Amino acid sequence: MSMTVIVLFLAIVLLTLVITYYAAKNTKTTGDFYTAGGGLTGFQNGIAISGDYLSAASFLGIAGAIALNGFDGFFYSIGFLIAYLVVMFLVAEPLRNLGKYTLADMINARFDAKKVRGAAALSTITIVIFYMIAQLVGAGALIQLLFGIKYWIAVLIVGVMMTIYVLFGGMMATSWVQIVKAALLMAGMVIISFLVLMKYNFNIGTMFTEVKTATSHGSAYLKPGIQYKDGLGTLSLMIALVLGTSGLPHILMRFFTVKDAKTARSSVITATWTIGIFYILTLFLGFGAAAFVGQSKILEANPGGNMAAPLLAKALGGELLFAFISAVAFATILAVVAGLVLSGASAFAHDLYGQILKKGKATERQQMLAARYASLAVSVFSIILALGAQKLNVAFLVSLAFCIAASANLPVILYTVYWKRFNTTGAITAILTGLISALVLVALSPSVMSPVPGAALITGDPIFPWANPALVSVPLGFLGGYIGTILSKETDPIRYAEVKVRANIGYNEQS
Amino acid sequence: MNDQNEKSKVNYVQVEQSEQFQQFMNKRKKFIVPYTIFFLVFYFLLPICTSYTSFLNTPAIGDISWVWIFAFAQFVMTFVLCTVYVKKAGALDKEADQIIKNQVQKGGAA
């Protein structure tokens, strides 16, 4: 580990702690804790959303995927980007208008049933835990590579840091850590992309021509089909990417940190532009890594390709740039896991404890304590799981999280806002069918079952053909909600009239 | 705390059935539905074309084939639709405010 790396690493840690210190002073109520008091501006929140979205998986993962698989890696960039149109057109504003802290709050604007809140909290917690383990295990492995420290120490460092941010600084600290990291990450991306383009005299045509002969794939590198050969499997992945985002709890929670739907709208716009530019840049990183680092060296460092971006930084900018990118990757991981802790804690403390157990009658002090205990519990629980999962191949957990989000959360969000007949039974069956079918199908898929020993959790031929089951589980989630609704006679058109009016015009009686 | 569960003082059914709100909803639907269908179709056309056809592999500009042009078109589309959405949704904000002022705050009577 070089001196520069250590200095930059400590600088990031120090900066985030200073942020947490100031945020802690301003975090007094539960509203402050969960949503920064709804006081972020559209621009700040937009940058924070981008930060939440540009996790280590998309920064390091996509650059690696493009470096190794060419066009097929770029599918991720496109899917994640278009996902924002779904958020913008269908979800963001109604969600902001109806909800308070959590997804369950929004659904409860229509149904008072505790079972619905419980089901929504369950799917939120499931997504958070899976996503978190994937991030922490990835983080541990990555920090091990970057800084040469042991896996368990790496996981503990990340775990303790995220706990400190959330416990003391709540959403305010989490958001500002996210904003700072997003700015650093964009700066890093722009610098590397600039260096790559400089090598090709800023001629994109030359870049394509050169990269055609730079890899062992030859001209196939520029064509789709290196990794995704099965049509329906590809389609299934693309469904999970585009629909999953609008159901991810830590992304949904971001829309409660602004004061109204108009601000939510402007934050999605900032996020879309930032993320869009970012994903275009992933192409330069991927191509650059393939050309100037070389696929064999990338694979040698990490079979998943996660080291492509840092290695490219080293090849083009030397130790200093490598240290910078490593530090940014570290900050990225910290910020994303902190957001996850917060959304998991809100499901436990606000939904399960505050609303179901205490029937919404918990005092402010009790709620605040519950929020902090829940954050601590979520953090400790995920750290323990991540420590135990070191040897497991957990990459599938990310696609599982996206799949549950698309199959369990999105149908119920859309039905709640747009379907008059929808009822309590339908809400429960939608969430449970989506959740269970995603879990079961992934468990039977090639992600979990592989005939090659050690390649996946279970050795054996996969029963379900596609790594990502969204093509089946998303329609099942919608169907589950439909059948549940039809089978129950319950319907409340008066309540729906209220939801419809409030969701669309943004009126809230309490405000 | 749980103020959402209290009985509402506003007659939302009346608001929902008012001509003003119906017109507002029609305008919202008019841009949300077609644009949503458009971007979803445009998006899914990419993996469908790459999986089941090969015409996108023909070169467009130098060594850049059509599949890349299509991929970049997705980015352009996102930026364009994002701008369109802001404009259209922003234009309806005034109408939403009017519904709040004229109806909701008066308890629902038009």
TrEMBL record, chain A:
Membrane spanning residue stretches: 6-24, 45-68, 74-95, 116-143, 149-168, 180-198, 232-256, 268-293, 320-349, 370-389, 395-418, 425-446, 466-487
PROSITE patterns tied to this protein: NA_SOLUT_SYMP_1 (PS00456), NA_SOLUT_SYMP_2 (PS00457), NA_SOLUT_SYMP_3 (PS50283)
Q: How does it sit in the membrane?
A: Multi-pass membrane protein
Q: Where in the cell is it found?
A: Cell membrane
Q: What is its main location?
A: membrane
Pfam family name, one: SSF
Alphabetized, the UniProt keywords read: Cell membrane, Ion transport, Membrane, Sodium, Symport, Transmembrane, Transmembrane helix, Transport
Family that this chain belongs to:
Belongs to the sodium:solute symporter (SSF) (TC 2.A.21) family.
Q: Tell me the PANTHER family matching this sequence.
A: CATION_ACETATE SYMPORTER ACTP, SODIUM/PROLINE SYMPORTER-RELATED
Q: Please state what the protein is called.
A: Cation acetate symporter
TrEMBL record, chain B:
Coiled coil located at which positions?
A: none
**Under which name does UniProt file this protein?**
Membrane protein
Question: What keywords appear on the UniProt entry?
Answer: Membrane, Transmembrane, Transmembrane helix
- Asked if the record carries the keyword Membrane, the reply is yes
* Chain ranges passing through the membrane: 32-53, 65-86
- The source's superkingdom equals Bacteria
